[in-house]
Amino acid sequence: MDKLEKLAFNTAEIVTIEELKEVLKKDKPRAYIGFEPSGTVHIGWKICTNKIKDFLDCGFNFTILLADWHAYINDKLGGDLEKIKLCGKYMEDCFKAMGVYADKVSFVYASEYAGDSKYWELVLRTSKATSVARVKRAMDIMGREEDEAEKDL
Which CATH class is domain 3-114? Predict the structure, then answer.
């Protein structure tokens, strides 16, 4: 199985095959996934873990964002930032237990990179270029009321 087949295997959607082919031409392709530390890991995580391992097998540099500030904003684990960070460490251990080793991925916490001035420059550039209506359209429908989501369609 070649890299494209491996990455497409057990995948319901790929933004574009052409884009993935271009990424696969890079010497050091990068991939990313983010999670809010918010509770116990469940069997569904194994699906994500298997796909992360596929990317690693295909030579990708892989980053797992443990979105502690996002979880805090969304009042996960009672909005207790210390519990959220502890849950993030637990999640790292769970990924490792499912075969994703720390030497093969980068675990990054939102609270770690938010102190970087380049991050805040990106936040400002993005906020200047983005309207509230566009952000709402891009948000997951689960986080909004049904009538609010319908207005945006």
Answer: alpha beta
Stretches where the chain sits below pLDDT 50 are 142, 149, 152-153
* Distances in whole angstroms, Cα of residue 67 to Cα of each of 54, 59, 86: 23, 24, 12
Torsion of CA 137, 143, 146, 149, to 10 degrees: -10
Q: What is the pLDDT of residue 113?
A: 78
Other CB atoms within 10 Å distance of the CB of residue 58: 17
Q: Token digits for 117?
A: 């001035």
For the record, the structure tokens of 151 come out as 């207005």
Q: Which helix (H) or strand (E) holds 55?
A: helix 44-57
